[in-house]
Amino acid sequence: MPPKSRLGQNFLHDQPAVRRIVAALGECGDRTVVEIGPGRGAITRELAAKAGRVLALELDPELAVRLSTEFSGGEADLVAHAVGSNVEIETVDVLSFDFAAASAAAGQRLIVAGNLPYYITSPILLKLAENAGALDRSVLMVQREVADRVTAEPGSRDYGLLSVTVQMHGPAERLFTLPPSAFTPPPEVHSTVFRWRFAPRFEELKVDREQFLRFMRQVFALKRKTLANNLRAAGIDGAAIAAALSDAGIDPKARAESLAVEVLAALWRSLKKTGAISSDEVAPTVH
What we know:
disordered N terminus; Rossmann fold; 11 helices; alpha/beta; 9 strands; two-stranded antiparallel ribbon
Protein backbone atom coordinates (compact mmCIF):
# COMPACT_ATOMS: atom_id res chain seq x y z
CA MET A 1 0.00 0.00 0.00
CA PRO A 2 1.77 3.17 -1.18
CA PRO A 3 2.10 6.11 1.25
CA LYS A 4 -0.31 9.01 0.82
CA SER A 5 1.63 12.27 0.73
CA ARG A 6 -1.50 14.32 1.52
CA LEU A 7 -1.67 12.55 4.90
CA GLY A 8 2.01 13.09 5.61
CA GLN A 9 2.72 9.36 5.65
CA ASN A 10 6.37 8.51 6.31
CA PHE A 11 6.47 5.03 7.81
CA LEU A 12 9.13 4.17 10.38
CA HIS A 13 10.96 0.93 9.53
CA ASP A 14 14.00 1.20 11.85
CA GLN A 15 13.33 -1.60 14.34
CA PRO A 16 15.94 -0.54 16.95
CA ALA A 17 14.27 2.89 16.94
CA VAL A 18 10.86 1.28 17.40
CA ARG A 19 12.12 -0.61 20.44
CA ARG A 20 13.69 2.55 21.89
CA ILE A 21 10.43 4.48 21.51
CA VAL A 22 8.38 1.85 23.32
CA ALA A 23 11.05 1.37 26.01
CA ALA A 24 11.01 5.14 26.63
CA LEU A 25 7.35 4.88 27.65
CA GLY A 26 8.38 2.93 30.73
CA GLU A 27 6.38 0.13 32.32
CA CYS A 28 2.95 -0.10 30.68
CA GLY A 29 1.95 -3.73 31.13
CA ASP A 30 -1.24 -2.74 32.95
CA ARG A 31 -1.86 0.51 31.10
CA THR A 32 -3.80 1.75 28.08
CA VAL A 33 -1.54 3.26 25.43
CA VAL A 34 -3.02 5.49 22.73
CA GLU A 35 -0.97 5.42 19.55
CA ILE A 36 -1.39 8.35 17.17
CA GLY A 37 -0.98 7.39 13.52
CA PRO A 38 0.02 3.70 13.62
CA GLY A 39 0.51 3.63 9.84
CA ARG A 40 1.79 0.18 8.88
CA GLY A 41 2.00 -0.93 12.51
CA ALA A 42 5.73 -0.93 13.29
CA ILE A 43 5.28 0.69 16.72
CA THR A 44 1.88 -0.96 17.21
CA ARG A 45 3.38 -4.45 17.12
CA GLU A 46 5.96 -3.56 19.76
CA LEU A 47 3.28 -1.91 21.91
CA ALA A 48 1.06 -4.99 21.63
CA ALA A 49 3.81 -7.03 23.27
CA LYS A 50 4.45 -4.51 26.06
CA ALA A 51 1.19 -2.70 26.90
CA GLY A 52 -1.94 -3.88 28.62
CA ARG A 53 -4.13 -2.37 25.90
CA VAL A 54 -3.37 -0.43 22.74
CA LEU A 55 -5.83 2.00 21.17
CA ALA A 56 -4.42 3.01 17.78
CA LEU A 57 -5.92 6.07 16.05
CA GLU A 58 -5.57 5.88 12.27
CA LEU A 59 -7.04 8.46 9.91
CA ASP A 60 -6.49 6.41 6.75
CA PRO A 61 -9.38 3.87 6.49
CA GLU A 62 -7.38 1.54 4.24
CA LEU A 63 -4.55 1.29 6.75
CA ALA A 64 -7.05 0.90 9.59
CA VAL A 65 -8.65 -2.11 7.90
CA ARG A 66 -5.25 -3.62 7.18
CA LEU A 67 -4.15 -3.24 10.81
CA SER A 68 -7.46 -4.52 12.18
CA THR A 69 -7.22 -7.61 10.01
CA GLU A 70 -3.66 -8.23 11.17
CA PHE A 71 -4.37 -7.89 14.87
CA SER A 72 -7.73 -9.68 14.85
CA GLY A 73 -6.52 -12.51 12.65
CA GLY A 74 -9.73 -12.24 10.65
CA GLU A 75 -11.79 -9.89 8.53
CA ALA A 76 -12.34 -6.21 9.32
CA ASP A 77 -14.57 -3.57 7.82
CA LEU A 78 -14.51 0.18 7.35
CA VAL A 79 -16.92 0.96 10.20
CA ALA A 80 -15.88 -0.87 13.37
CA HIS A 81 -12.33 -1.82 14.20
CA ALA A 82 -12.58 -3.38 17.64
CA VAL A 83 -10.39 -6.50 17.54
CA GLY A 84 -9.92 -9.56 19.64
CA SER A 85 -6.37 -9.03 20.86
CA ASN A 86 -5.19 -6.25 23.18
CA VAL A 87 -5.07 -3.91 20.16
CA GLU A 88 -7.99 -1.85 18.93
CA ILE A 89 -7.79 0.23 15.76
CA GLU A 90 -10.08 3.22 15.51
CA THR A 91 -10.53 5.15 12.27
CA VAL A 92 -10.55 8.71 13.57
CA ASP A 93 -8.87 12.08 13.27
CA VAL A 94 -6.84 12.51 16.46
CA LEU A 95 -7.96 16.15 16.64
CA SER A 96 -11.53 14.98 17.21
CA PHE A 97 -10.69 12.06 19.52
CA ASP A 98 -12.10 12.26 23.06
CA PHE A 99 -9.11 11.57 25.31
CA ALA A 100 -11.09 12.36 28.47
CA ALA A 101 -13.74 9.77 27.63
CA ALA A 102 -11.08 7.18 26.77
CA SER A 103 -9.31 7.86 30.06
CA ALA A 104 -12.57 7.52 31.99
CA ALA A 105 -13.35 4.24 30.21
CA ALA A 106 -9.88 2.91 31.01
CA GLY A 107 -10.13 4.04 34.63
CA GLN A 108 -6.65 5.57 34.42
CA ARG A 109 -4.67 8.35 32.79
CA LEU A 110 -3.54 7.41 29.32
CA ILE A 111 -0.07 6.93 27.89
CA VAL A 112 0.46 8.29 24.38
CA ALA A 113 2.89 7.32 21.64
CA GLY A 114 3.17 8.25 18.01
CA ASN A 115 5.01 9.32 14.89
CA LEU A 116 3.14 12.60 14.37
CA PRO A 117 2.34 13.78 10.83
CA TYR A 118 4.50 16.84 10.26
CA TYR A 119 1.73 18.92 8.70
CA ILE A 120 -0.43 18.89 11.84
CA THR A 121 2.17 18.49 14.59
CA SER A 122 1.39 21.74 16.42
CA PRO A 123 -2.41 21.16 16.47
CA ILE A 124 -1.81 17.66 17.86
CA LEU A 125 0.49 18.99 20.58
CA LEU A 126 -2.14 21.58 21.51
CA LYS A 127 -4.79 18.85 21.57
CA LEU A 128 -2.69 16.82 24.00
CA ALA A 129 -2.04 19.91 26.13
CA GLU A 130 -5.76 20.62 26.35
CA ASN A 131 -6.30 17.05 27.56
CA ALA A 132 -3.37 16.94 29.97
CA GLY A 133 -5.64 15.95 32.85
CA ALA A 134 -6.45 12.68 31.07
CA LEU A 135 -2.85 11.91 30.14
CA ASP A 136 0.13 10.60 32.10
CA ARG A 137 3.08 10.67 29.70
CA SER A 138 3.92 10.47 26.03
CA VAL A 139 6.76 9.62 23.69
CA LEU A 140 6.37 11.39 20.36
CA MET A 141 8.32 11.67 17.15
CA VAL A 142 8.27 15.02 15.37
CA GLN A 143 10.36 17.03 12.93
CA ARG A 144 13.71 17.85 14.57
CA GLU A 145 13.11 21.60 14.42
CA VAL A 146 9.80 21.20 16.28
CA ALA A 147 11.46 19.14 19.00
CA ASP A 148 14.10 21.87 19.31
CA ARG A 149 11.33 24.38 20.01
CA VAL A 150 9.35 22.12 22.34
CA THR A 151 12.35 21.38 24.58
CA ALA A 152 14.10 24.78 24.28
CA GLU A 153 15.32 26.61 27.37
CA PRO A 154 14.94 30.36 28.03
CA GLY A 155 17.53 32.41 26.23
CA SER A 156 17.96 29.98 23.35
CA ARG A 157 17.12 30.76 19.74
CA ASP A 158 14.28 28.21 19.67
CA TYR A 159 12.51 29.24 22.88
CA GLY A 160 9.09 30.71 22.21
CA LEU A 161 5.35 30.26 22.40
CA LEU A 162 5.39 26.54 21.59
CA SER A 163 8.09 25.94 24.23
CA VAL A 164 6.08 27.68 26.94
CA THR A 165 2.78 26.10 25.92
CA VAL A 166 4.20 22.57 26.08
CA GLN A 167 6.32 23.10 29.19
CA MET A 168 3.45 24.66 31.14
CA HIS A 169 1.73 21.28 30.76
CA GLY A 170 4.73 19.29 31.96
CA PRO A 171 8.45 18.71 31.33
CA ALA A 172 9.64 17.68 27.87
CA GLU A 173 13.00 16.09 27.09
CA ARG A 174 14.72 15.13 23.84
CA LEU A 175 15.60 11.46 23.53
CA PHE A 176 17.17 10.77 20.13
CA THR A 177 17.15 11.84 16.48
CA LEU A 178 16.62 9.72 13.37
CA PRO A 179 17.80 10.35 9.80
CA PRO A 180 15.44 10.32 6.80
CA SER A 181 16.66 6.82 5.91
CA ALA A 182 14.77 5.41 8.93
CA PHE A 183 11.49 6.00 7.09
CA THR A 184 9.65 4.93 3.95
CA PRO A 185 9.49 7.13 1.98
CA PRO A 186 12.39 9.17 3.42
CA PRO A 187 11.22 12.65 4.48
CA GLU A 188 13.31 15.69 3.66
CA VAL A 189 14.05 16.34 7.33
CA HIS A 190 15.45 14.59 10.40
CA SER A 191 13.03 13.44 13.09
CA THR A 192 13.44 13.66 16.86
CA VAL A 193 11.79 11.60 19.56
CA PHE A 194 10.96 13.39 22.81
CA ARG A 195 9.24 12.43 26.05
CA TRP A 196 6.58 14.66 27.58
CA ARG A 197 5.30 14.04 31.10
CA PHE A 198 1.96 15.69 31.77
CA ALA A 199 2.04 17.75 34.96
CA PRO A 200 0.32 21.12 34.34
CA ARG A 201 1.84 24.04 36.25
CA PHE A 202 -0.96 26.60 36.09
CA GLU A 203 -2.21 26.03 39.64
CA GLU A 204 1.34 25.90 41.00
CA LEU A 205 2.19 29.23 39.34
CA LYS A 206 -1.18 30.77 40.27
CA VAL A 207 -2.24 31.63 36.73
CA ASP A 208 -5.46 31.01 34.82
CA ARG A 209 -4.70 28.61 31.97
CA GLU A 210 -6.67 30.25 29.15
CA GLN A 211 -5.79 33.80 30.16
CA PHE A 212 -2.11 32.98 30.64
CA LEU A 213 -1.79 31.27 27.25
CA ARG A 214 -3.48 34.26 25.64
CA PHE A 215 -0.97 36.48 27.44
CA MET A 216 1.89 34.33 26.13
CA ARG A 217 0.58 34.81 22.63
CA GLN A 218 0.90 38.55 23.19
CA VAL A 219 4.37 38.58 24.74
CA PHE A 220 5.82 36.36 22.00
CA ALA A 221 4.01 38.16 19.16
CA LEU A 222 7.17 39.62 17.58
CA LYS A 223 10.52 38.14 18.59
CA ARG A 224 12.50 41.23 17.53
CA LYS A 225 10.55 43.44 19.93
CA THR A 226 11.14 43.75 23.64
CA LEU A 227 8.62 42.31 26.04
CA ALA A 228 7.45 45.83 26.92
CA ASN A 229 6.92 46.76 23.28
CA ASN A 230 4.92 43.61 22.60
CA LEU A 231 2.70 44.37 25.58
CA ARG A 232 2.20 47.94 24.45
CA ALA A 233 1.26 46.64 20.99
CA ALA A 234 -1.34 44.46 22.72
CA GLY A 235 -2.94 47.60 24.16
CA ILE A 236 -1.61 47.44 27.71
CA ASP A 237 -0.88 50.76 29.38
CA GLY A 238 2.81 51.72 29.42
CA ALA A 239 2.85 52.79 33.06
CA ALA A 240 1.22 49.51 34.11
CA ILE A 241 3.82 47.57 32.10
CA ALA A 242 6.72 49.44 33.71
CA ALA A 243 5.31 48.85 37.19
CA ALA A 244 4.69 45.17 36.54
CA LEU A 245 8.17 44.62 35.10
CA SER A 246 9.66 46.23 38.18
CA ASP A 247 7.41 44.18 40.47
CA ALA A 248 8.46 40.95 38.74
CA GLY A 249 12.14 41.91 38.73
CA ILE A 250 12.38 41.97 34.92
CA ASP A 251 14.77 44.20 32.97
CA PRO A 252 12.66 46.74 31.01
CA LYS A 253 14.66 45.86 27.88
CA ALA A 254 14.17 42.11 28.22
CA ARG A 255 12.66 40.00 25.46
CA ALA A 256 10.16 37.28 26.28
CA GLU A 257 12.42 34.51 24.97
CA SER A 258 14.94 35.24 27.71
CA LEU A 259 12.48 34.59 30.54
CA ALA A 260 11.55 31.34 32.28
CA VAL A 261 7.89 30.44 32.69
CA GLU A 262 8.08 31.23 36.41
CA VAL A 263 9.09 34.81 35.62
CA LEU A 264 6.44 35.19 32.92
CA ALA A 265 3.85 33.91 35.40
CA ALA A 266 4.99 36.50 37.95
CA LEU A 267 4.56 39.22 35.32
CA TRP A 268 1.06 37.98 34.46
CA ARG A 269 0.05 37.96 38.14
CA SER A 270 1.32 41.51 38.59
CA LEU A 271 -0.58 42.82 35.55
CA LYS A 272 -3.68 40.85 36.51
CA LYS A 273 -3.60 42.27 40.03
CA THR A 274 -3.75 45.81 38.72
CA GLY A 275 -6.42 45.02 36.13
CA ALA A 276 -4.07 45.89 33.26
CA ILE A 277 -4.83 42.71 31.31
CA SER A 278 -8.18 41.52 30.04
CA SER A 279 -10.01 38.43 31.25
CA ASP A 280 -11.39 37.75 27.77
CA GLU A 281 -10.59 34.21 26.76
CA VAL A 282 -8.91 33.76 23.39
CA ALA A 283 -7.60 30.37 22.30
CA PRO A 284 -3.83 30.41 21.79
CA THR A 285 -2.37 29.84 18.35
CA VAL A 286 1.00 28.17 18.03
CA HIS A 287 3.07 28.16 14.85
